[in-house]
Specification:
The chain has 212 residues and is an alpha+beta fold. The protein has helices at residues 28-39, 52-63, 69-72, 79-88, 92-103, 109-119, 129-141, 145-153, 165-174, 186-199, and strands spanning 3-7, 12-16, 162-164, 203-205. The chain is elongated.
């Protein structure tokens, strides 16, 4: 369930691919994909798996953005990237989603094993729906409570609707989604929330101005 926002030189945000608010409906886009695929395969593009080398690069880039995995990771942890990539079947969306979650967790066997096990065998049940349902829902479920509200707020906006990031933050504030933080204005906290959703790859920034 990647939300895409385009930030123009006027700090405008364009939201794409918005779905419903209910957690159990987060996979509707996948059902639509299957329906479209049945009706007109010529207009639906299958995302091909990455090569092993590209899959590794994508995983490390998102799971270890601030240090070198091979030189600083404990030997006990090295087996899990292999297992996780196997579960993800080298599909970019699955790799980015899981790796981004791992980047937020302690680099311990216990934490990585817990996340790996939470993927479960469900990923292998259905070649499309089961895999992405589990991965995307796992990413959503790992959001802090306040970010879940902010993320789901996208669903009430029309697809391709343009809105400034400042306006979006004020809407979150009006809905009481933004918590007070000492030393920061509510607008600054709202911007932090948006940046966190971007960092978790639930929102993709495809263009931004010179000021960020």
């Amino acid at each position: 369930m990647i939300k895409k926002i385009h930030r123009t030189t006027k700090d405008t945000v364009l939201l794409e691919g918005v779905n419903t608010m209910e957690e159990d409906q987060l996979i509707d886009i996948l059902r639509n994909y299957l329906q479209l695929k049945r009706e007109s395969s010529s207009h639906v593009y299958d995302l091909k798996p990455l090569s092993d080398g590209d899959a590794w690069k994508l995983f490390y880039k998102n799971a270890f953005p601030s240090f070198n995995f091979e030189s600083q990771c404990s030997p006990d942890l090295e087996e899990f990237p292999f297992k996780i990539l196997k579960r993800c079947e080298c599909l970019p969306l699955a790799i980015v989603t899981i790796a981004s979650l791992l980047s937020l967790k302690y680099k311990t066997v216990q934490e990585w094993k817990k996340l790996h096990d939470s993927l479960g065998p469900e990923l292998e049940i259905n070649p499309i729906l089961g895999k992405f349902n589990k991965v995307l829902l796992l990413s959503y479920n790992n959001l802090p409570y306040h970010l879940k509200h902010c993320f789901l707020y996208f669903s009430i906006l029309l697809e391709d609707y343009a809105i400034t990031s400042m306006r979006l933050g004020r809407l979150w504030i009006t809905e009481a989604f933004v918590e007070e933080t000492r030393g920061k204005t509510l607008e600054e906290v709202a911007e932090d929330y948006l940046n966190e959703l971007i960092r978790r790859n639930l929102v993709q920034m495809v263009e931004m101005n010179d000021s960020g």
